[in-house]
């Protein structure tokens, strides 16, 4: 079975942890055995988040005033290489020595007229107090929104339209390679003119979960898993009536309300995949990844 697993940010960096290379590698090392167990039985395709990492690179770039800060698309490409390297190495250490793995730098086309450019909403970078967020916003002309008890920078998050490297990704999969791609939602790109041929980068971040469902559809995956730090999707979250949804159809899931900044994009991604392909998707904890594949853990979203 071909399985796409989208790793949430918790696989790399848990909330409140220092953004050191050592800490991120340690988290990936903890996740690697569970992912290797999936790869031993199925064909594995990995995507991953990059919000904290791209935000940190943006801060580092802004601190060096000798040159203009690098744009978000370039920083996104840097994080794809950085995170892909760590994932590939640590996962490879848990797999047979001859198991082939490859990280693919992935560009994803977006629409220049996407309304997201007028409403920044995607969290990047570390969390701040409100006073610090106000200070940075005034100094750098950044937009901040509340994320739980803290504040984080937000940038435009346009819809993913097309994966530029989908043909080489499929070629690698056809050869049995474990592929790491579409990291951080892919590098956002668009054509410089209508009907043109010149791709240019975009100052934006594509939602990783929406890009992962597009990836899963385009590689003909039989299962899409959005791995996060909770054991599934909960109805009435945060209330006395909250309850975990174990097995639901798209119509049942659409009847619920979910926060746009947390579970909402994951739910939407699973709904799109199931409705467009008639196949299964799931949301759940990385620690239960093998049970999620078997259909016995997480929230399983199944065709009606």
Describe it for me?
It is a single chain. By secondary structure, this protein is an alpha/beta fold. α2 (51-63) crosses α3. The protein has helices spanning 21-41, 51-63, 72-94, 130-140, 166-174, 208-218, 250-254, 263-277, 289-294, and strands at residues 2-7, 43-48, 101-104, 107-109, 122-128, 143-147, 150-155, 162-163, 178-181, 187-191, 199-201, 223-228, 233-235, 243-245, 247-248, 280-285, 299-301. β6 and β7 (150-155) form a beta hairpin. It is globular, with a radius of gyration of 19 Å. The two termini are 21 Å apart. It has an 8-stranded mixed β-sheet, sandwiched between helices. It contains 9 helices and 17 strands. Helices cover 38% and strands 24% of the residues. The chain has a domain at 2-113 and 158-221: Acetylglutamate kinase-like (Carbamate kinase, 3-Layer(aba) Sandwich), CATH 3.40.1160.10.
Helix content range of the residues, please? 25-40%
Rounded mean pLDDT score: 90
**Main structural class:** alpha/beta
H/E series: EHEHHEEEHEEEHEEEHEEEEHHEHE
CATH level-1 class of the domain at 2-113 and 158-221: Alpha Beta
User: Based on the structure given, which CATH architecture of the domain at 2-113 and 158-221 is correct?
Assistant: 3-Layer(aba) Sandwich
CATH fold assignment of the domain at 2-113 and 158-221 = Carbamate kinase
Distance between the termini: 21 Å
Q: What is the radius of gyration? A: 19 Å
What fraction of the residues are assigned to beta strands by DSSP?
A: 15-25%
Q: What's the multimeric state?
A: single chain
Strand order of the largest sheet: 3-9-2-1-12-16-17-15
